[in-house]
Every structure is written in structure tokens, then in C-alpha cells.
Amino acid sequence: KGPLDDQVQNIIRQVGEMHRSCDMLAANSSFIRLLVDSKFDVAFTYQYHYCPIGAIHAAGIPTWIWLDVGALMDSIAEFAGVPQPPSYCTPITMDAGNELTFAERINSFLGQRDTQKQYKALIGLETAAWRKYHGDNPDLQKLASDAPLIIVNSHELYELPSPSLHNIINIGSVGISSKNAKNLTGEFAARVDASNLGHIVISYGSLTPMYLMPETWRNAFIRACTAFPDVQFLIRHEHPEDIQPLLPPNAFAAVAAAERLTVASESSRNRRSWWIQHTPDNLFIGNIINKTKK
């Protein structure tokens, strides 16, 4: 039994209870009335479950956008009609590359079959919740299949090849300009200059601060740093004095990991740079807003 087994089981239990929260939402007539009276022109919903799609329909919002904060989810692809050949389109949770062995293709086929059963069962329960309080509400699967626009936080350049459709738009990648970039100074400059194979910036932002990570997760990061002694790790941490004594010599923690400067600086241009970060909904929405302004 691994250290994360209990957490994984807890997540599975929470997913299994999603339809109960949907029942509460569908029963909240005052909230639905508020949505109707607000006369929204467009609504955004996310990829984890389908209850908000029912709320959008009940409120009569003219159009909506399905947001996916990572690669295209299996469930969204299924309902949108995107072909997912298991011979090279593996389930999103499967650890596989773009070349599959025979055994991996079998696992991909079985994984797709099992995950389809799970999310179709969930969408069936959530459809029942809306019909319980709103009469002959359309099947949420049918509403999902009519999604006008699906925005995916991914990019063709670094995702494995897979089919797509005209209403799926990728807005992923990190845009960092090196214009007017200056040289790094102090500890950052010394470590970038000393790196043999390059450096990795690890920053999870303010929504998921590293000091709140479980100890098992923190130790996993430390072991990863130790496993690559020729790579420098620059870690954003709110309390660097707590973690620095635990880090190997090739890792450095600071309150601000200077993500943009470290990746785009003159010091980094002739060296390999990587950036490990999270993809929360707030960054996703910010990306949409920025691209809309352009």
C-alpha cells in the first residue's frame, strides 16, 4: 500500500458523490431563478462533471463554452464525437507514449471501456437529478454533445497526436518573451551558470503553495531533485528556510523563483530550461481573457 492510496481512494469516493451535489443544485430553485434573471449571454463550465450543463439549460443561457484545464479529457472527447482509437489514443490517466506495445493497446482498450462506463453512469445520475425537479429535462449527454465551443489548455506541439474537431480550440503553452530580458543576479545567476544539463523552475503559484503540500509529496520532489544532480532546481516556496536544509546541493528554494526572468533571461538562452507549474482554472480563465483582448 503506497502513501497516496488513502488520498486516491478518498478522491474516488468524492467523485462517486458528485451526483448528490447535483441533486442539491437542481433543487435550488432560487439559484436557478437568479441565473434566469441575470440574463447571461454566455456560460463557462468545466470538465469534471456535467451538472452545470443542466443549470445552463435550465437558466436558458443562449450559449456556453466547455473548459478543459489540461489535455482533452476522455469524457469530453466521447460526448463531443471526437474519435479516440485505442490503438494510439490512450485514456488520459494511462502512462503511455505515442508508440504502444500490443499489451498497452489492450490496456488502452480496456481503460477506455471502463472510463466510459464510469462517466456515463455519472451523467445518467445527474440527468435524473435535473428531471426530478425540472420535469422532462433533456439528457445531459445530449446537451454535452451539442457543446458550441470546447477550449482545451493544451497545445499540438507537445501533446501526443490525436483527432480533433472544428469546435475544439487549444490555447495551451506558456508565452514568455525574451525582449528586454536582463541577466540574472545573485544565487539565481550562479546556479543557472553552474548547471550542466540545464535548470528546472518549479512554481505552483499562490493557489497551491508548496508549504501546504503533504510531507510525502514534498519528499517526492526532494528525491526527484536528488536523482538529477547535473540539473539545477529553482523552487518557489513560501517558507524557503524550512525546506532548504532538506534539499540536495543542486536545489535552491526562494520566495520568488523569478519564473519569467529565469526562463527568458540572457543567462538561460544557451541552456535548457524547463518550467513545472500547475494549471488551475484561474490561469485558464486568464489565458482566455488575454487572448480575447488580442
From TrEMBL:
Entry annotated with the keyword Glycosyltransferase: yes
Keywords assigned by UniProt, alphabetized: Glycosyltransferase, Signal, Transferase
Protein family (similarity comment): Belongs to the UDP-glycosyltransferase family.
Name the UniProt record assigns to this protein: glucuronosyltransferase
Pfam hit, one: UDPGT
Organism: Pristionchus mayeri
Domain of life: Eukaryota
EC number: 2.4.1.17
InterPro entries: UDP-glycosyltransferase (IPR050271), UDP_glucos_trans (IPR002213)
Reactions it catalyzes: glucuronate acceptor + UDP-alpha-D-glucuronate = acceptor beta-D-glucuronoside + UDP + H(+)
